[in-house]
Design brief:
alpha+beta, nine-stranded mixed sheet, three-stranded mixed sheet, 4 helices
């Protein structure tokens, strides 16, 4: 654990999803009660599909692959090796503005992608960070966001695709979006960009979450 610009940052490595969820809840209780500072968990998960509260039956895997239902916003997504997942557990300032917090999280990820030489954008009406449509294809998401706020403190967070297996997205409708794609830093840049490379860059930009 290290202290970075107002956060305790934990590089947790590869962690089972259910284990990480329990740890989020433990830290959330401590942050909400004032017993712990704002904390960010940075980790990878073994392959797992998770469904937020807005997931529709038609969004789920076509082949019956198990899905973990969770209490975050958004729809269904995949987590797995080659993807850096961040769980900022942050006490939001009053008055609580969840949309502004999501915009700050998007800015963190936009700035991270820019450091790697990949221009990204926001897409109106859709959370996350996107590579704009071009000759290679339609809009495609490189980083997903799904959060929950309880007692004024955030849970869940973001996932940025570094060098993950994009075929994992082929058996379901990612985030319920049928007219766009999913991509990774490696796929867009034409070279391997590992989680180990992305991790310190994300850490450098976490301070943006405390702005505004």
């Amino acid at each position: 654990m290290t202290s970075i610009l107002g956060f305790e940052v934990v590089r947790a490595g590869l962690v089972d999803y259910e284990t990480a969820l329990a740890e989020q809840r433990r830290i959330h209780e401590a942050v909400a009660s004032g017993a712990a500072p704002d904390t960010v968990l940075l980790l990878e998960h073994p392959s797992v599909y998770t469904a937020g509260k807005r997931t529709e039956p038609a969004d789920r895997p076509f082949d019956g692959t198990p899905v973990v239902d969770v209490d975050r916003g958004g729809k269904i997504t995949w987590h797995g090796p080659g993807q850096l997942v961040g769980y900022p557990i942050v006490k939001l300032p009053d008055p609580i503005d969840v949309v502004a917090y999501v915009r700050r999280m998007e800015q963190v990820l936009i700035d991270v992608c820019a450091e790697f030489g990949l221009p990204t954008v926001r897409v109106e009406g859709r959370s996350g960070v996107w590579v704009a449509a071009d000759g290679r294809g339609p809009d495609r998401k490189v980083a997903a966001i799904g959060i929950r706020v309880a007692r004024g403190v955030t849970l869940h967070g973001f996932a940025i695709n570094a060098d993950c297996d994009l075929s994992r997205y082929d058996i379901f409708v990612p985030c319920g979006i049928r007219d766009a794609g999913v991509t990774s830093l490696s796929a867009e840049l034409g070279r391997a960009v590992t989680v180990a490379e992305v991790l310190p860059v994300v850490e450098r930009h976490l301070a943006t979450l405390h702005q505004g």
